[in-house]
From TrEMBL:
Its EC number is 1.1.1.-. This is Mannitol dehydrogenase family protein. Keywords: Oxidoreductase. Residues 32-280 form the Mannitol dehydrogenase N-terminal domain. It comes from the Bacteria. The keyword Oxidoreductase applies. InterPro entries: 6-PGluconate_DH-like_C_sf, 6PGD_dom2, Mannitol_DH, Mannitol_DH/Oxidoreductase, Mannitol_DH_C, Mannitol_DH_N, NAD(P)-bd_dom_sf. It is an enzyme of class 1 (oxidoreductase). One of its GO terms (molecular function) is oxidoreductase activity. Residues 290-471 form the Mannitol dehydrogenase C-terminal domain. It comes from Meridianimarinicoccus marinus.
Length: 495
C-alpha cells in the first residue's frame, strides 16, 4: 500500500473497500460494560462478539469501557485513545488473511493510584457487567489448594485500604459498596479467563477479599451479584512489529492491531443479575453445560499448549505451528492427548473428545498463526498447576497411565534450568522464574528437588507412580536429551 491510513473515527470511510468496519454510528453508543484487562484476547473475542451485535443494530447500549490497574496499562490507554479505541482484527488462515475494524470499545479509563476513575465508572448505574481478562494466575488463588490466598500482599493491602485498592478485585468491591449504599444495586462479574469454573473463582476472590474488611458487604455481594462461568476460546498471538506490519499491508496505521485464528468459541452460563447483550445472536452459546465445554477446552487445548511448549523451548522451536510440524513433539502430543487426557473428558453436543483432539491438532498446526513458543510457555507456575496437574490427579485416581503427564512436568523442569539444548539462554518467563531456576538446577542431580515445591505440587511428591515416573524422565532428559525422552515415551506400548 502506498498510503497508510491512521485509524480513527474520521478515517473509517477512507479504508480500502475490502476491509469490514463499523456500520453503526459510534457516537450513539453508550456504555454498559467495564472490561478490566484490554489485552489482545479480549479484543479478538468478547469485543468482537459485541461488535457483531452492533453491526446488526443491537446492543448499542452495551458498549465497552476499557480499564486497567497496572502502570503499564497507561501506555496502552494512550495508544487506544489516539485511534478512538478502534482495533484492527486480522484473521489468519492458511488460505489467506482478512481484516476487520471493530468499534465496540468507546473509552479507556485513566490509570490512577487507588483506582478512583475505575471505581467511579463501575458505580455508574449504566454499567451492568464488569468483565475481566487478567490471566489465569491473576485471581489470588493458592495453586496447591485452589483456596483464596488472603495472605498475598496485594490482598492484605486492599483489605487494609478498601477505599483505595491496588487490585481490580479491590476496586470491584469498593464500587459494589457504593452501589449498595446508594441503592443502585449489583452488577454481574464476568471472568473471561482460562480457568475451570472461572465464575466461581471470581466469586471466591471478590467475596473472600470483601470479607477481610467488611463481612456484611461480602454477604450482600454473595447474595446479590452473579458470576457466570464461561468458556472462552480463540488463539490470539501477541502483537509486535510483525503484526503492525500486517496491518500496514492492509493500508492501516494501527498501533494495536490483533491477529487471530479463524476459530472462536464462547460458552456462557446464563446468570446475569442486571441484564446482558444477546451474544448468542452473534454466535456465542448460552448453556447450563459450561463445565463440560470448559473441561474439554482446558484439558485438551490449554494443557496441550503446555505439552508442546516446553519441549519446543528446549529444542529451540520458535512457534507453536513449528512444534506441531516437529515429528517427535507432534507424536508426543497425540499420544498424551489420546491416552492420558481424553479419558478424563466428557463429550459435549456435537463434539467428542477424540474429535476435539483432531480439531486442536489442526488449529495448533496452522502455519499462518505465528504464536510463539515463549508466549505459550509463559507463567508455567500458573498453567501447569491449573491445566496439567489436575489431570495427573485424575489419572492417579482411576489408575490410568500418567507417564506422559509426568514427562510434561519433567520437560518443564528442564526448561526452567534456563538454557536450551543448543546452549542459548531462556530469558525469564514466569513471575517466579528465579525460584523455578533454583529448583531446576537442584533437580538436575536430584529430580525430587523439583517436586518439593509444595506450593505447586502439594501431595503429588508423595504419590509414587508420579514421583518415580518424573524422576525417571528427568534423568533421561539430562542423560540422553529431550528428543530421546519424547521418542522413548512414544515407543512405549509399540511392538
Amino acid at each position: 500500500m502506498d498510503e497508510l491510513i491512521k485509524l480513527s473515527n474520521e478515517t473509517l470511510s477512507r479504508l480500502p473497500a475490502a476491509i469490514l468496519r463499523p456500520q453503526y454510528d459510534r457516537k450513539k453508543l453508550t456504555a454498559g460494560i467495564v472490561h478490566i484487562g484490554v489485552g489482545n484476547f479480549h479484543r479478538a473475542h468478547q469485543a468482537w462478539y459485541l461488535h457483531r451485535l452492533m453491526q446488526a443494530g443491537a446492543a448499542l447500549d452495551w458498549a465497552i469501557v476499557g480499564a486497567g490497574v497496572r502502570p503499564y496499562d497507561a501506555v496502552m490507554r494512550e495508544k487506544f485513545l489516539a485511534q478512538d479505541c478502534l482495533t484492527t482484527l486480522i484473521e489468519l488462515d492458511p488460505s489467506g488473511s482478512s481484516a476487520e475494524v471493530i468499534g465496540s470499545m468507546i473509552d479507556y479509563l485513566p490509570i490512577s493510584e487507588g483506582n478512583a476513575p475505575l471505581i467511579a465508572r463501575m458505580v455508574d448505574p449504566a454499567i451492568r457487567i464488569v468483565a475481566l481478562t487478567v490471566t489465569e494466575g491473576g485471581y489470588y488463588v493458592d495453586p496447591a489448594t485452589s483456596a483464596f490466598d488472603g495472605a498475598h500482599p496485594d490482598m492484605q493491602h486492599d483489605a487494609a485500604n478498601p477505599r483505595t485498592p491496588h487490585t481490580a478485585f479491590g476496586a470491584v468491591i469498593e464500587a459494589l459498596r457504593q452501589r449498595r449504599d446508594t441503592g443502585i444495586g449489583p452488577f454481574t462479574g464476568l471472568s473471561c479467563d482460562n480457568l475451570l469454573a472461572n465464575g466461581r473463582v471470581m466469586r471466591q476472590t471478590v467475596v473472600s477479599l470483601a470479607r477481610m474488611s467488611d463481612p456484611a458487604l461480602a454477604d450482600w455481594i454473595d447474595a446479590n451479584c452473579t458470576f457466570p462461568n464461561s468458556m472462552v476460546d480463540c488463539i490470539v498471538p501477541a502483537t509486535g512489529e510483525k503484526e503492525i506490519a500486517q496491518a500496514h499491508r492492509f493500508g492501516i496505521d494501527d498501533a494495536v492491531p490483533v491477529t487471530h485464528e479463524n476459530f472462536r468459541q464462547w460458552v456462557i452460563e446464563d446468570d446475569f443479575c442486571a441484564g446482558r447483550p444477546d451474544w448468542d445472536q452473534a454466535g456465542a452459546t448460552f448453556s447450563s453445560q459450561v463445565h463440560d465445554y470448559e473441561t474439554m477446552k482446558l484439558r485438551i487445548l490449554n494443557a496441550g499448549h503446555q505439552i508442546i511448549a516446553n519441549p519446543g523451548e528446549i529444542l529451540s522451536v520458535p512457534t507453536i505451528s513449528g512444534c506441531m510440524s516437529h515429528p517427535s513433539i507432534a507424536a508426543y502430543f497425540r499420544k498424551v492427548q489420546r491416552e492420558e487426557i481424553a479419558p478424563h473428558v466428557a463429550p459435549v453436543p456435537g463434539m467428542t473428545p477424540e474429535a476435539y483432539v483432531d480439531l486442536i491438532e489442526r488449529r495448533f498446526g496452522n502455519p499462518a498463526i505465528v504464536d510463539t513458543t515463549r508466549r505459550v510457555a509463559f507463567d508455567g507456575s500458573s498453567r501447569h498447576t491449573g491445566f496439567v496437574l489436575p489431570l495427573v490427579r485424575k489419572g492417579l485416581a482411576i489408575e490410568n497411565s500418567i507417564e506422559g503427564l509426568a514427562l510434561v512436568e519433567a520437560l518443564w523442569a528442564r526448561m526452567c534450568y534456563g538454557t536450551r539444548e543448543d546452549g542459548s539462554v531462556i530469558e525469564p518467563n514466569d513471575p517466579f522464574w528465579e525460584d523455578l531456576v533454583r529448583a531446576a538446577r537442584a533437580a538436575r542431580e536430584h529430580p525430587q528437588a523439583w517436586l518439593t515445591q509444595h506450593h505447586l505440587y502439594g501431595d503429588l511428591a508423595a504419590q509414587l507412580p508420579f514421583a518415580q515416573a518424573f524422576d525417571r524422565w528427568l534423568r533421561l532428559i539430562w542423560s540422553d536429551g529431550c528428543e530421546a525422552a519424547l521418542k522413548a515415551y512414544c515407543a512405549d506400548g509399540k511392538d
